[in-house]
Design a protein that fits this description.
Oligomer: single chain
Number of helices: 8
Bound molecules: flavin mononucleotide
Shape: globular
Number of domains: 1
Order of helices and strands: EHEEEHHEHHHEEHEH
CATH topology: Rossmann fold
CATH architecture: 3-Layer(aba) Sandwich
Helix content: 40-55%
Distance between the termini: 13 Å
Length: 168
């Protein structure tokens, strides 16, 4: 049986890619082979016995690429364990209403394929890196800038997911 795990992600400014890499590194520590790839570059799902798919949240939603990927491959994805993660600043504030909103960003993909687990992690927002449009939006919503990523939480989640998808 295939014994690799796929960690696939979308990103606009790189912070979700680094979260995906951290998840991959943690899984490798458990001795498993892992491919960490932008979701658009994944050609073939047959080598994988599980997949972890993540996106940053933009204006309450996942980026389109992972949603399109999950929709396209839903039949195959339903046959292996799947976990989803979302990266967004709202998670840095942590209130229940705010976390609910971050969780809602995954509603569509959860309806397509039910995950064994979901993770919601704080991200990074640095106005100097943003496009003009994105900078205007974050000014309007008065978002706090900074790097709020919590590597310990990311690694702990990767371990928890691994315990759910590890072979018996
Ligand atoms: C225009 C814009 C809109 C955003 N909207 C949300 C949002 O609705 N909810 C949220 O939690 N984070 C939001 N964020 C924060 C991003 O999700 C966060 O910066 C994330 O780390 C970006 O990931 P990336 O670097 O992989 O693109 C927004 C950021 C920008 C620039």
């Amino acid at each position: 049986m295939a014994d690799r795990i796929l960690v696939a992600y979308a990103t606009r400014y790189g912070s979700t890619a680094e979260v995906a890499e951290a998840i991959g590194d943690e899984l490798r520590k458990a001795g498993v082979a892992v491919d960490v790839q932008p979701v658009n570059e994944v050609q073939d799902l047959s080598p994988y016995r599980a997949a972890i798919i993540g996106s940053p949240i933009y204006v309450g939603k996942w980026l389109p690429e992972p949603q399109v990927f999950i929709e396209r491959h839903q039949q195959h994805l339903r046959t292996i364990p799947i976990a989803y993660f979302a990266v967004g600043l709202t998670a840095a504030d942590g209130g229940p209403e705010i976390l609910k909103k971050a969780e809602a960003s995954m509603d569509q993909v959860r309806m397509l394929v039910t995950p064994v687990d979901i993770g919601i992690f704080p991200g990074r927002l640095e106005s100097g890196r943003l496009s003009l449009t994105d900078r205007t939006i974050i000014k309007l919503i008065r978002a706090k800038t900074g790097d709020f990523r919590d590597w310990e939480a990311v690694r702990a989640w990767a371990q928890a997911v691994y315990s759910k998808i590890a072979p018996l």
